[in-house]
Amino acid sequence: MPVVVTSTPADAGPVLLARDVDLVRGEARLLDSVSLRVEHGEHWALLGPNGAGKSTLLGILGARTHPTRGEVHVLGRRLGRVDVRELRSYLGHVDPRHPVQSPLTLRQVVLTGLTNTTELVPRWGPSASEEAEADRLIALLGVSHRASDRWPTLSQGERGRALIARALMPAPRLLLLDEPATGLDLAAREQLLTALDTLRREHPGLATVLVTHHLEELPPSTTHAYLLRDGRCLAAGPASAVLTTELVSQCFGHPVRIVHDDGRWAARARRVLAPL
What we know:
By secondary structure, this protein is α/β, with parallel strands linked by helices. Helices cover 27% and strands 27% of the residues.
């Protein structure tokens, strides 16, 4: 049976707290002594090269995977001592690969956020206030003009913004975004980042963790950054202290120059000449 969210649990302390987390699969150590603390209203960027463990860590923070060792507390609940199915109902998890099998409308997909399902639940219907909230979030994310259009006809950018609205339906305290700008062209990416900034302003208590490979995909409202390489934390803290030329170059294993202008970050790769 689907979980229908009616309220958010009372939160005490940090939104997320991970202590010395390891994740081992066979002979591979995917995460190695990873620790992270996220407070209410903070907006974290989780960056690193391919295979660094970003999506793996996000899966643990979203109660989709359990660590091999270490402690993880989500909204004050410790993984392993809580019903994760219920806990997931209080999290907003945005995955651009979200599976939609039926030709639902954008509005219907947003409403499935109330039942934590990918399809509409038989014999269930939203209340008038829940429908109004769906319409408000759809407007906030700038896709009201496509609310009645079927999912297969939407662009990747429109789907991304709809999935953020869907994730917000249970009024979560935590929003996890797994590479939300994947596959977007320049205009769609900028529309998405603008929508995220608007969302963060209107929900000051909301905490977010956004996974990306690219600094250009970070909204200006980003407050903190976490650099992950080979499953280990290289640096974590305020974005201005972490997103530096030296640390980002070390994280990605390539010399880059970091530019921070008008609230946005960019990485300029330095040309490395091969020896003659």
